[in-house]
């Protein structure tokens, strides 16, 4: 499938805050990006930078209270998902946009058979009868590369391995042929061989269904493998976004540079790994100005006072940095 | 579509961890339950009692309520194996018919209060916040209220009858189940599969009752089993006080009612000893079953 120019989803100025006793946690603080039809968008960043909250906000799954989507728009096929009714939103979840979670071991309900869980989403969204849904489930199980589908459908989650369970989750997420799949660190809990299989599987199915994928991970290696475009997130904001080549080779933002440098290389002998000095800022008290400046080695005076805008350096390549602009 | 090509080569690499014959949860539980001999004995005895209760009409030698003043207060004999009571009814027959009412009161009352308890506990635990606060304070009031006073009060208002006993036990007994279910739901709602279900577009009602409730099934089942035993005792107590089942209906507790008089207590043990023993046996057996179930359903125990 050729990636079109029309966006399937466009996120504008999304802000999700958590109102806790200690103060307001600005987990997502103005995120903008879009995903085009059939494309894979990688969202990378350190732990606690707001990746997962971003995806939950798109699905409107943020626990409220304490969480609240304060501002912004999530335009899916031109419709603002943050404005539609709960009822309508439920029709979107699992049907138009579906999600795979980080933990395949606990994302399946232990007391139901695989078949029952797979067919539920079909009965819910596609108005299928139980029989039809079960047939379709069998087809989906085959599609994600699990052999002996009939027996698997009758089995319980505890009888499957982690990789198989993640396949089941993928089958469930894809059974309604969604326009967008949000994969929130789908391979983090799996070992590397299974990880490769799952990535290949998602890619293959993506081509056949023609859906877009938002791939969230902190693993730059995985991102390099699957993504057409990449957005680098830090402290609740997109710091740099562009095509994979632009991010991995022609990156501009100092944070992106730091991230890429900290990947250990097999062919370079070093006593110590490169790190980005300092740690992620406290989301309750973000530093003024650019949120990365306390850790940035290129910082200038302006960085401490004013926060830079996300500027388009060249078509499709956005950077939020004073120094490099 | 091309997806089959992608999958080629993957299939051989997967390890197949699924057992040949699917092991159902039920078979695992039964296997563990069987290991507990006491529970098994309890199950067999209760099954016998249940069968006797169901087929009371065929098993009982006499009708339960035929008053026969000519043969009253007879000690055990060939015609009346357990003697007759003050109205001349055959004690064994009444015992057999009494099993029907005693057991069904236990069962119906528990079904009633488990339903109430599940509903209140599930809503409370799932939604949390002020809903939880209100429902749980209400539950606290029910728990802290002197229970027997409450029961006697309700019994006095509604009047003594089989159905009222069921209702009384049902309406006063739900608090423990509610707390239990609430606790389970507090845990379950944080599970990833709750989030996954929401992500698939399920609404709250569906998540509570079809996704989470089956996960809270084990502790509720144990509580309900034990609850049947409690309900039988409560029924006996109420009937003994004359606030529960009254003649001509027969229950074990109602038969004990006769033992309120000192003459009966000291001179006619055949009137109160058999129902007393049966109550003890039934309650003990049910509790054994409950214990066995608890162990069998405990996920921490390895098969």
Number of strands of chain B: 0
CA-CA gap between termini of chain B: 45 Å
Largest sheet of chain A, order of strands side by side? 6-7-8-3-9-10-12-11
> What is the residue-averaged pLDDT of chain A?
85
Shape, principal axes of CA atoms of chain B: elongated
Count helical runs of chain A: 11
> How many individual helices of chain B?
15
Summarize the biggest pleated sheet of chain B: none
User: How much of the residues of chain B is beta strand, in percent?
Assistant: under 5%
Largest interface comes to: A-B, 50 and 36 residues
Q: Would you kindly provide a written description of the structure presented here, covering whatever features stand out?
A:
The complex is a heterodimer of chains A (325) and B (303). Chain A contains eleven helices and twelve strands. Chain A has 325 residues and is of the alpha/beta class. Chain A has an eight-stranded mixed β-sheet, with helices on both faces. A four-stranded antiparallel β-sheet of chain A has the order 2-1-4-5. The mean pLDDT of chain A is 85. Chain B is an all-alpha fold and 303 residues long. Chain B has helices at 3-7, 25-35, 37-54, 56-59, 91-127, 129-144, 147-158, 162-172, 174-188, 192-199, 204-212, 217-240, 252-256, 262-267, 269-297. In chain B, helix 3 (37-54) crosses helix 5, helix 5 packs across helix 12 (217-240) and helix 12 (217-240) runs antiparallel to helix 15 (269-297). Chain B is elongated and about 75 Å long. Classes of the chains: A alpha/beta (325), B mainly alpha (303). The A-B interface holds A 59, 61, 65, 90-95, 98-99, 101, 103, 106-112, 120-121, 124-125, 143, 145-148, 151-152, 154-156, 159-161, 163-164, 169, 172, 193, 197, 200-201, 203-205, 207-208 and B 1-3, 5-7, 10-11, 13-19, 22-25, 129, 191-193, 195-203, 211, 214-215, 217.
Notable traits:
heterodimer; A: 325 residues; alpha/beta; 4-stranded antiparallel sheet; 11 helices; 12 strands; B: 303 residues; mainly alpha; disordered N terminus
